[in-house]
């Protein structure tokens, strides 16, 4: 009996150790699951957020020319009041009456307005309400453009796509500040995936025989996926900070510690939402913006150059001897550009670039080369343009993801949410300027005989 005591005590100790180990063991698994859920959630949100924006740019040539597709490819006849291509045949370029830069402006100016004005009101809107607005405007954009009876309705649909994308970007990028920095890569990869899948799906479905109208109607599933991903990954509905309640991030009402924010992360408790969301003085905001300029200015230049190429030059880079029609060449340009963007936006875990200005220089050189190619028409093949466009997309995607990684890494926790929201203005500003210039350049080239 005397020996049973120690044995029993040892057995109890071992048992307790096993029980304690069994309680501690699952924690890494839970952390891995939460990280996976965070990354998957932000990837889906990035995909759905940018999808309508990308599709409108891919469909820009069709929207302006009302060419549904080639005759053997599910086309419905062009309305007699709309003449596709260069109606006068006096120009050496096959031009639409309106530049695709006009579609770009309709697709980006509302976004720019939202991003500039958001600091004055965005804190009053809970995240759930913002997501609902994004979903409804995306649905409206596809429906209006699909059933368009004229340019005004088409451009209204494009504007709604811009509202959805702009509000979504500033919302979800601000949301990343509450999580591990890895979700920035997931969001960035998702937006790149939107570019690739959006352009590829539009190209593939029209090539398969669907009219652009039917193609756009099938894409109404994307806003539904956004809603499903938000609802499935959201915290309990009684948590007001992240769902439908009246207290948005930045309020003085912090959630109970037992509640997790959207796509709750194990790192959330390390990043106190209340401390991040506190009011930042105007002077502090000015200092934050000043410190970000070394990243924001190069990003704006990169996006100015690449969207000038996309909406100012793509339409003019037409090879008559190629086996593809003008509309098909334009769709391929958009798809290959987005493929390059997707690859580079998904590469942040492998390659990090701090010198964003170097990417800006390379993109400007790319723009000058292709501008000369349009004017002098010295490129021998459309396939060479395909290669250059993939390279263009790689530069653009790399500048985007590395800029936001640098901003996230260098911002203080209490400034990070504001900094991420400000940073997303830079690319939009560059795109807006490029759209205005693209219209002027289009008009100039189309007057050349």
TrEMBL record:
Membrane-topology descriptor = Multi-pass membrane protein
Compositionally biased spans, kind Polar residues = 1-14, 266-280
Chain coiled-coil ranges? none
Q: Which residue windows does the record flag with biased composition (Low complexity)?
A: 253-265
Give the UniProt keywords, A-Z: Lysosome, Membrane, Transmembrane, Transmembrane helix, Transport
Domain of life where this protein originates? Eukaryota
Which residues are listed as membrane-spanning?
A: 42-60, 97-116, 128-149, 155-175, 182-203, 215-233, 355-376, 382-401, 422-445
Pfam families recorded: CLN3
Say where the protein is mainly found: membrane
Q: Quote the subcellular location field of this record.
A: Endomembrane system; Lysosome membrane
Instruction: Provide the residue span(s) of the region labelled Disordered.
Output: 1-24, 253-280
UniProt entry tagged with the keyword Cell inner membrane: no
Q: Which InterPro entries match?
A: Battenin_disease_Cln3, Battenin_disease_Cln3_subgr, MFS_trans_sf
Report the family membership.
Belongs to the battenin family.
The protein in question is named Battenin
């Amino acid at each position: 009996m005397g020996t049973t005591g120690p044995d029993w005590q040892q057995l109890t100790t071992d048992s307790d150790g096993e029980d304690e180990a069994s309680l501690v063991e699952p924690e890494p698994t839970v952390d891995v699951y939460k990280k996976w859920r965070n990354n998957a959630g932000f990837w889906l949100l990035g995909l759905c957020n940018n999808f309508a924006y990308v599709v409108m740019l891919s469909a820009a040539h069709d929207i302006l020319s009302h060419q549904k597709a080639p005759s053997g490819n599910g086309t419905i006849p062009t309305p007699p009041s709309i003449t596709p291509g260069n109606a006068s045949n006096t120009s050496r370029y096959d031009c639409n009456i309106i530049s695709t830069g006009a579609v770009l402006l309709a697709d980006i100016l509302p976004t720019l307005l939202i991003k500039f004005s958001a600091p004055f009101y965005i804190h009053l809107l809970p995240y759930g309400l913002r997501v609902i607005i994004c979903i409804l405007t995306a649905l409206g954009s596809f429906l209006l453009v699909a059933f368009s009876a004229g340019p005004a309705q088409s451009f209204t649909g494009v504007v709604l796509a811009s509202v959805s994308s702009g509000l979504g970007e500033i919302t979800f990028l601000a949301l990343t500040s509450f999580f591990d920095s890895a979700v920035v890569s997931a969001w960035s990869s998702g937006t790149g995936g939107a570019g690739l899948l959006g352009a590829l799906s539009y190209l593939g479905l029209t090539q398969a025989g669907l009219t652009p109208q039917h193609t756009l109607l099938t894409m109404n599933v994307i806003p539904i996926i956004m809603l499903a991903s938000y609802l499935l990954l959201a915290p309990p509905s009684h948590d007001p900070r992240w769902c439908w309640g009246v207290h948005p991030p930045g309020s003085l009402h912090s959630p109970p510690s037992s509640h997790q924010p959207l796509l709750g992360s194990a790192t959330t408790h390390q990043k106190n939402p209340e401390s991040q969301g506190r009011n930042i003085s105007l002077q502090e905001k000015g200092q934050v913006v000043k410190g970000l300029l070394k990243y924001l200015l190069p990003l704006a230049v990169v996006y100015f150059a690449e969207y000038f190429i996309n909406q100012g030059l793509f339409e003019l880079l037409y090879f008559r001897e190629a086996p593809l029609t003008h509309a098909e060449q334009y769709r391929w340009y958009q798809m290959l550009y987005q493929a390059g963007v997707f690859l580079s936006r998904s590469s942040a875990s492998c390659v990090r670039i701090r010198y964003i200005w170097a990417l800006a220089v390379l993109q400007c050189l790319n723009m000058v080369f292709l501008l000369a190619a349009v004017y002098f028409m010295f490129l021998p093949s459309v396939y060479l343009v395909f290669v250059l466009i993939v390279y263009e997309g790689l530069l653009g995607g790399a500048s985007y993801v590395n800029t936001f990684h640098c901003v996230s890494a260098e911002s203080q926790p209490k400034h990070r949410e504001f900094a991420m929201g400000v940073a997303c203005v830079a690319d939009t500003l560059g795109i807006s300027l490029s759209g205005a210039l693209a219209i002027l350049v289009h008009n100039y080239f189309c007057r050349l005989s």
